[in-house]
Specification:
It contains 1 helix and 2 strands, in the order E-E-H. By secondary structure, it is mostly beta strands. The chain is elongated, with a radius of gyration of 21 Å.
Length: about 70
C-alpha cells in the first residue's frame, strides 16, 4: 500500500490498526513502527489490590508476614 505524505503526515487506514484506540509510534533507524497499545494492560493493575489476606498493613509489611 502506498500513501501520500501531506503537510500533516500520513493517514493510516483504521482496518490496519486491529481496533486499537491508542498506538505507540516510534522511529527505528529508517523505519517508522506503529504498535497498537492496550490501555487495559494487566501489568498496570498489579498494585491496585496487592494483598487480599485481610491484614490492613500487609502491602507495607509484606516481608514480615512471609
Amino acid at each position: 500500500m502506498l500513501a501520500k505524505v501531506t503537510d500533516n503526515g500520513v493517514t493510516i487506514p483504521k482496518d490496519l490498526l486491529s481496533g486499537a484506540e491508542t498506538v505507540d509510534i516510534r522511529q527505528e533507524g529508517n523505519v517508522v513502527v506503529i504498535v497498537p497499545v492496550s490501555l487495559t494492560d494487566p501489568l498496570l493493575d498489579l498494585g491496585k489490590a496487592p494483598v487480599t489476606c485481610g491484614a490492613p498493613d500487609a502491602s507495607e509489611r509484606h516481608d514480615e508476614y512471609v
